Amino acid sequence: MAHGPAHGLSRWFYTTNHKDIGSMYLWFSFAMFFLGGIFALVIRAELFEPGLQIVEPNFFNQMTTMHGLVMVFGAVMPAFVGLANWMVPMMIGAPDMALPRMNNLSFWILPFAFAMLASTLFMEGGAPNFGWTFYAPLSTTYAPPSVTFFIFAIHIMGASSIMGSINIIATILNMRAPGMTLMKMPLFVWTWLITAYLLIAVMPVLAGVVTMMLMDIHFGTSFFNAAGGGDPVLFQHVFWFFGHPEVYIMILPAFGVVSAIIPTFARKPLFGYSSMVYATASIAILSFMVWAHHMFTVGMPFIGEWVFMIATMAIAVPTGVKVFNWVTTMYKGSMTFETPMLFSIAFVILFTIGGFSGLMLAIAPADFQYHDTYFVVAHFHYVLVPGAIFSITAAVYYWLPKWCGRMYDETLGKTHFWLAFIGLNLTFFPMHFSGLAGMPRRIPDYNPLFANWNMLSSVGAFLFGAAQVLFLYIVIRAIVSGRRATAQVWEGAHGLEWTVPSPAPYHTFTTPPKVD
Amino acid sequence: MEKATRKTVMRLAVSAVLMFVAVFAIMPPLYTLLCEITGLRKVGGAYEAEEIKVDTARQVTVQFVATHNDAMAWEFHPMEYKVTVNPGKKTVVKYFARNNTDKSMVAQAVPSISPFSAVNYFHKIECFCFNHQPLAAGESAELGLEFVVDQDLPKQVTTITLSYTLFDITAQAQPQVALVQ
User: Which of left, alpha, beta for A495 (phi over 0: left; psi -120 to 50: alpha)?
Assistant: First the structure.
């Protein structure tokens, strides 16, 4: 099988190879990460001082909206799909994904979706400005005309995600090497299997809710219009029925990545493999029962608040199982602190902080105080940035030698880690304080009372942004002129992906490996 | 494609389509049903007046509020801003509406009751909010509301606020506009 990739640009347009498609997903997500990052820096620049200095309030609202949408649907989700494309077939000993042509399609519709979404910035009336949660009727009756482009962009992203998930499930269920039973699969594969089921359950709900918006805007229906017998609160229920599983879609694969990296550098097997699998499944099931904790203040009956509060707190149990698993895996291990390990340890610590602020928000009576303040912003950035983003960064450092056959520069990698770590905490930790003091979200101006915390946050944000530019440089430098990597790469690494040479050949496991 | 793979793909694709359909076919009616059961929102339907005893020993203040949605140009306000009633006693009040525009319009009033604990104990026997309100240009109307406060109203509730938001639904109700003209 001396059958390499095609030459020229057509390789990338026509490819059905899981490694090519994985790389394209990862580069696409990297580009979106910078785009969303620029939007975030516009927000932070405006909030550097009280008053209005740099942008108009309407443009500020467009920035918060686009930042959220691009980061969630453009940066985090495609990055995990890219990792799944690269790693899942190699981890289960499959030659490729189950549906290679659909794989090509599910990637190539994404750039069109985001081109359409980004083009709204240049339209009359501006880009969507109603926040990434696009609550109706703000996003229907009062929306700029570009909302229709936003709706179709969401449809395309949803189609891409659903196709990608079907592909991943079909691969995992039907293409494992002989002997690779479900309970022998690496945790990254397990977490992605469960994530893919979540995606298939909720992406159609997102597609449905934007379709209802489309009909309310253009076809005179009244799903969310009280005058016609509809109800704006229905929008919030349907949206968060998608939205809450969505946050687990962004974090479960991260759990898988960290569960691969920590045992490698602690040189010990994962403390409790099966408990991790069951904890992941429990989190996924619970994620469907807690959506209304995002909307405690809409005026729910007491029993509703109570049920959603208890269910939300119950999620802390399986999550705690995971955190203790990682900690006990490290306990008495012979640990080394290469860049992927640093990012993973930071993940465990900072994600736990985000989890605790989540518990605070879950207390319904206290949530009336925290609702829509910077405390919420601090909470979900603590779970998403050190959660999703740090785990993706760790995964890139961990598997990059396998992808391109070359090592990254360890000193630069550690520099990147510390800059990102300090930048992140400087940005988001003060938001807890400004939030508890009452600073509202999504407002371009604020009381001078919050000036100091905001100035710190803005400085931190620019530091974090600079650290990511360094990351881009490190990756390019490794690909171009890094030191050659061995097949094993990391001393303590286990799994089928480390049995193939570095860089991984274009076709791997064309004959299935034997798994004991 | 192998047979097993095809089976997996079909099953997953069908689930995705079913979830999409469920959003339209199941979620809105289910939501409306839950709102009715919990009393969050009384969707239409008049209260069947029963013979209930008037509790003369207790007095409850009922306040009336009127709100215009967005660009609704009508004049719209209650004719009395508050009444004091005994639980169990039927009471009639009126709202006033005038179409100040130069075209025929149809409006819909959507009620809201607070505090929440009073919702299940405030019964509307007859209400203009049960129907569309068509008014020709310049026309005005007195809109009637007959209600009774249940004698089982929780003790701590001494004031009930009834708020109506008036929506312009001319676009959705074209046939009725033709009727007025």
Answer: left
Cis, peptide link before residue A137, omega less than 30° from 0: yes
pLDDT band at B127 (very low <50, low <70, confident <90, very high): confident
- Note whether A258 and A348 are within 8 A (CB): yes
Dihedral over alpha carbons B17, B19, B25, B31 (to 10 degrees): -170
- Yes or no, beta carbons of B31 and A301 under 8 Å apart: no
pLDDT at A375: 97
Residue B48 clears pLDDT 50, i.e. is over it: yes
Q: What is the mean pLDDT of residues B150-156?
A: 87
Structural domain tally of chain A? 1
Low-confidence ranges of chain A (pLDDT < 70): 1-3
Report how far apart, in Å, the C-alpha atoms of A248 and of each of A319, A324, A343 are. 11, 19, 20
Is residue A432 part of the annotated active site? The answer reads: no
Q: Which of B5, B23, B33, B129 to mutate to test the interface with A (most CBs of A within 10 A)?
A: B23
Query: What pLDDT is attached to residue A286?
Result: 95
Name the phi and psi angles at A53, rounded to 5: -110, -50
In a domain, A192, yes or no: yes
Known catalytic residue at A244: yes
**End-to-end Cα spacing for chain A:** 26
Query: Using 50, 70 and 90 to split pLDDT, how confident is the model at B51?
Result: low
Domain that holds residue A489: 21-498
Active site residue A294: yes
At residue B175, does pLDDT exceed 60? Answer: no
Helices (H), ranges, A175-229 = 187-218
- Give tens-digit pLDDT for B5-39: 999 999 999 999 999 999 988 888 888 888 877 76
Query: What is the DSSP code string of B27-60?
Result: HHHHHHHHHHHHTS---S-----------TT--E
b/e map of B49-79 (b: 16 or more CB within 10 Å)?
eeeeeebeeeebebebebebbeebebebbbe
List B148's β-bridge partners, or say none. Answer: B123
Per-residue pLDDT, A299: 83
Within 13 Å, how many C-alpha atoms sit on residue A309's CB side? 17
User: Would you state the torsion angle of the CA atoms of residues A154, A164, A351, A461, taken in this order, to the nearest 10 degrees?
Assistant: -50
B167 vs A contacts (CB less than 8 Å): 225-228
Q: Give B90's DSSP letter.
A: -
Q: Could you tell me which chain B residue has the CA closest to the CA of A226?
A: B110
Q: How far apart, in whole angstroms, are the C-alpha atoms of residue B114 and residue B41?
A: 11
- Residue A506 covered by a domain: no
Q: Output the pLDDT for position A422.
A: 98
Length of chain B: 181
- Kindly state whether residue A7 falls inside one of the protein's structural domains: no
Residue A1 lies in a domain: no
What is the average per-residue pLDDT within B74-78? 90
Take residue A260 and report the two structure tokens written for it. Answer: 């691969």
CATH code assigned at A455? 1.20.210.10
Structure confidence at residue B131 (pLDDT): 84
Average pLDDT over residues B131-137: 87
